[in-house]
Amino acid sequence: MTDIVLKDLDPALLERITAYADTQGWGQARTLRFLLEQGLRASIGDERVSLDPAEDGVLAAAIGALEQIPDDTFALIGRGPAQPAPAS
After folding, report:
1. Helix (H) or strand (E) holding 42
2. CA-CA distance, 1 to 45, in Å (whole number)?
3. Distance (Å, rounded) from C-alpha 60 to C-alpha 70?
4. pLDDT of residue 45
5. pLDDT value, residue 15
6. Would residue 77 count as lying in a domain?
7. Does 4 fall in a domain?
8. For residues 42 and 46, what is the distance between their CA atoms, to the nearest angstrom?
9. Average pLDDT in the 29-34 region?
10. Structurally, how many domains does the chain consist of?
11. pLDDT tens digits for range 45-82
12. C-alpha span between 34 and 40 (Å, rounded)
C-alpha cells in the first residue's frame, strides 16, 4: 500500500479528524482511509455509499414517518393561525 503524507493540514481539520477517530474507536490511518473513501464517493456521485445498518434503519423509519404526513401540512409552515374576517 502507498503511503501518503499530508503537509500543512489545518489544525482545526486535524482536530475534527482526531475527534471522529475517537468516537469510532479507530486509529488515525483507518479514519483517514474511511473519510477519503466517503468523500471521494460523495464527490463523484458513487451510488455505493451506504449507511451502517443502524443508521439505515433510522433513516427508513424517518422516511416512513414523513410519508404519512398529509401533503398540505408543509404548506402551512410559516403561516400564522387563520384570522377572522374584519367586521363590516
Report:
1. helix 28-44
2. 25
3. 18
4. 73
5. 94
6. no
7. no
8. 6
9. 92
10. 1
11. 766 656 777 787 888 888 888 888 777 766 677 777 77
12. 10
> Over the stretch 6-28, which tens digit does the pLDDT of each residue have?
889 899 999 999 999 999 999 99
Sign of CA dihedral 32, 33, 36, 41: negative
Count of helices and strands (H, E) across the chain: 3, 0
The pTM (predicted TM-score) of the whole model is: 0.49
CB of 40 closer than 8 Å to CB of 46: yes
The C-alpha cell at 41 is 464517493
Answer yes or no: is 78 within a domain: no
Show the domain range for 65.
11-69
Q: Read off the DSSP letter of residue 22.
A: H
Q: Is residue 15 part of a domain?
A: yes
User: Of 37, 40, 29, 34, nearest to 1 (Cα)?
Assistant: 29
